[in-house]
Amino acid sequence: MHDSHRKHRETDGGGGLTAHVFRALGNYKIWLFAACGIFVIPHFSFADKAAQPPIPDLPLGEAIGQVLAMPGDAEYGAYLATECVTCHQQHSVNHAIPAINGLPREYFVEAMLEYKYHLRDNSVMQAIIGSLGMEELSALATYFSTKD
Amino acid sequence: MSNVTRRTFNKLLGAGAGAMAMPGLLRAQGRKNVVIVGGGAGGATVARHLAEKAGGAINITLIEDSEKYTTCFFSNLYLGGYRDFASITHGYDRLVNDYGIRKITARAEEIDRTAQQVRTSTGETIPYDRLVLSPGIDLMFDSVPGYSRELAEIAPHAWQAGPQTQLLKSKIDELKNGDQVVMVAPPNPYRCPPGPYERVSMIAHTLKSRGLDDCTIVVLDPKDKFSKQGLFTEGWEKYYPGMVEWYGPNIHGGIKGVDVKAGTVETDFDTFSGALLNIIPAQQAGSIAISAGLSDDSGFCPVDAETMRSKRDENIFVIGDASIAGAMPKSGSAANSQAKVVVMHLMGDLEDARVFPARYLNTCWSLVETNDGIKVGAQYANVDGAIASTSSFISQPDESADIRRQTFEESVAWYDGITKDMFG
Predict the structure, then answer these.
(1) A96 has pLDDT over 80
(2) Please, what's the b/e burial string for B117-147 (b: 16 or more CB within 10 A of its CB; e: otherwise)?
(3) Nearest C-alpha of chain A: how many angstroms from B388?
(4) Is any Cβ of chain A less than 8 angstroms from the Cβ of B371?
(5) Taking CB atoms and an 8 Å limit, are B412 and A52 in contact across chains?
(6) In 3D, which of B192, B224, B376 has the Cα closest to residue A45?
(7) Taking 50 as the threshold, does the pLDDT of residue A22 lie above it?
(8) What is the predicted pLDDT for the residue at A24?
(9) Nearest to A15 among B229, B237, B414 (CB)
(10) Contact state of B391 with A124 under an 8 Å Cβ cutoff
(11) Where residue A89 falls among pLDDT bands split at 50, 70, 90?
(12) Do residue B168 and residue B238 come from a single domain?
C-alpha cells in the first residue's frame, strides 16, 4: 500500500481509516476526507428493514378454523411444497430446520399461522408464510400430512 | 415410476451399445426430451425434480462439463477454514443411478434453435423438445484493464468455484503478518451479492486466527453500496478492527486497472499494493446463452416472469445467474427456486400437468465470524409481468449472539438441504 495510506491508518488512533468513513456515513454526515480533500456523501441507509405483509385482522383462532375447513388442494400443495423442501428435508436430523413431512393437518395449520401472526419469531418463516394465503396454507397442510 | 423401474429401463437401453445416444430410438418410444445445460443449483435441481415428477415419462439429459460440482455457496467457508473442499463438492452419481438422468460430461458448444438440438464438445447432437439453460456466469476478464484468464492463475477471481477457490485458499495460507490483500469487487449485476463481503470476513477470520493481526484487506469497490452493508461493516469493526478497509467510488474515484505481476491496483485516488490480489471482474450470462441469441444488451437473458421461459424462444427456459429475473438476485438459492417453476411448466407443456401461479424464494446466508451468521432474503411473484418481492427479511444489527448462532446453524442446515435437493 502507498505510504500515505499506511501513515494515515497508523496515526488515526484505531478503527482504521475506513472505520472512520463508516462511522461518518452511519451518522448521516457529510464527512471531510481530510487527507485528500474528498467529500464522502452517504448514498445508503443502515436501517435495512424487512418488508412483510401485515398481520391479518382476523383473530388467530378464526383463521385456524377457516383454513382447516378448506378441503386443501393436494396437487397445488405439491407444487407449493417444492419451495419448502429445499430446506425441510424428508429425513432431517438437523434441528435447526426440522422435518415437516407427516405433520398432522391441525398442527401444521396452527404452526404456520403462528408465523403469519408473528407469534413464532423466525424471520425467514414469517416472510414465507406471510406471503401465503389461506388457500395455499390449506393446500400445503393437506400435502404434508400425507407425506412420510 | 419407481427407482428400480427406472434402473431397469436404463439397463434395457444399455443392453444395446450406445442405445442412449440414439435419439431415434427415444423418439420411437414416444417420450419427450428435455435437455438441461449446466449442472449447478438451477440445472441439477431441474433434473432431479423433473425426474421425480415425470417418473420416467420424459428423457432427461444433463450436460455439464465437470465430473463433480463445487458449489460457489459455502466456498467462502472453505476459505475461512470452516469446511473442507470435499464437503462443498458433489457428484452426479445419484442423479444418474437413482433418477435415470443421462449426464453428459461435456460442454454445450452450440444450440440449433430451429432443429431443436444441442451439440456438445464431445461431438454429440442431442435433440430437445424443451431446453433448460442454467449456464451460470462468464467472467468479463477485460472489464478490469490488465486482467486476463491467464493472469487469474496469479491473482485468482475464485468466482467460479473449483481450482480457483483452492488457489485462492493456498495464497491466503501463504500470507505473512503485515501483508495486504487487495480485492477488486465486481460491478452490478453479479453472482451472489453478499459474496465478496462474506469472503472479506472469512479471509480476515483466517488471518486473525493465525495471529496475523497486522494484515489488512482493502476492498476497491465499483459500487457505492453493497448487500448487507450495515451488518458486514458492524461485524468488521467488532471482530477485525483495523483490518478491513472498504473504498467505494466516492473515495477511490474509479478503478483504472491492475498490474498482476507487480501486485498493484491503480485507482484515480492512488495505487494499492497487495501480496495477494483477488480480482472479481464484471459478469455476463454463460456464453452458450449469448451465442444462442437469448441475451439482450445487458449480457443476460430476458425471461417471462411467470414461467422463466426465454422471451426469445418459447421452447427454452433460462434460469439462475444467466437470467434477468427481475428483483431476484443471482444466487444458488434463486436458481434452485426458479428451477421448480420451470419443472412445473415442463410438466405442463409435455405431460399436460396442472400449472399454478409461480412463487419464487431467495435466501442469502453469510458468515461474519464463528457462530455469527446473517441472512437476507425475500419471497417473489409475478407482479404485472415482472418478478417482484412480496415479502422479505434481513438480519438486524442489534441481534443477540444466540440469534446469530441460530442463523449460522440454519445456514448449515440450508446447505445440507439445498445440496440434497440438487444432487439427491
Answers:
(1) yes
(2) bbbbeeebebbbbbbbbbbbbbbebebbebb
(3) 12
(4) no
(5) no
(6) B224
(7) no
(8) 36
(9) B237
(10) no
(11) confident
(12) yes
Q: Which residues contact A23 (CB under 8 A, 6 or more apart)?
A: A15
Q: Does B247 touch chain A (CB under 8 A)?
A: yes
Are residues A128 and B410, on separate chains, in Cβ contact within 8 Å? no
CA A11 to chain centre: 41
CB contact under 8 A, A44 and B247: no
Walking along chain B (424 residues) 10 residues at a time, the average pLDDT comes out as: 43 43 52 98 98 97 98 98 98 98 98 98 98 98 98 98 98 98 98 98 98 98 96 97 97 98 97 98 98 98 98 98 98 98 98 98 98 97 97 95 97 96 97
Q: Is residue B395 part of a domain?
A: no
C-alpha cell read off for A40 = 464522502
Using the Cβ of B391 and the Cβ atoms of chain A, whether some distance falls under 8 Å is answered with yes
| Chain A residue at shortest CA distance from B333 | A86
pLDDT bucket at A49, cuts 50 / 70 / 90 = confident
* pLDDT at residue A57 tops 70: yes
Tell if the CB–CB gap between A44 and B229 is shorter than 8 Å.
yes
The residue range of the domain holding B166 is: 145-282
- The answer to the question of residue B239 being in a domain is yes
- Distance of alpha carbon A42 from alpha carbon A29, whole angstroms: 8
CA gap A80, A84 in Å, rounded: 7
The per-residue pLDDT for B318 is 99
Report yes or no: B233 at the A interface, CB cutoff 8 Å. yes
Pairing of strands B359-369, B386-394: unpaired
Closest to B59 in 3D by CA, of B380, B346, B307, B385:
B346
d(CA B354, CA B362): 24
Q: How far apart are CA B359 and CA B361, in angstroms?
A: 7
Q: What are phi and psi of A95, to 5 degrees?
A: -70, -15
Joined together, the cell numbers standing for residue B342 give: 420451470
Pair (B151, B275) in one structural domain: yes
Confidence check: pLDDT of A43 > 70: no
Ramachandran class of A16: left when φ > 0, alpha when ψ lies in -120 to 50, beta otherwise: left
Domain boundaries, chain A: 3-40, 60-145
Region of residue B126 (phi > 0: left; psi between -120 and 50: alpha; otherwise: beta): beta
Cell numbers representing residue B212 in the block? 496475523
Give the sign of the dihedral formed by CA B173, CA B174, CA B177, CA B180.
negative
Chain-chain contact of A53 with B216 (C-beta, under 8 angstroms)? no
**Out of B230, B251, B361, closest to residue A46 by CB:** B230
So what's the pLDDT on residue A36? 39
Of B218, B253, B282, which one is at a domain's C-terminal end? Answer: B282
Residues 199-218 of B with CB under 8 A from A: 216, 218
Whether residues B208 and B327 share a domain: the answer is no
A60-145 is classed in which CATH architecture?
Orthogonal Bundle (1.10)
d(Cα B182, Cα B174) in Å, to the nearest integer?
A: 15
CB proximity B32 to A under 8 Å = no
Closest chain A residue by Cα to residue B273: A1
**Through-space distance between the first and last CA atoms of chain B, rounded to whole angstroms:** 16
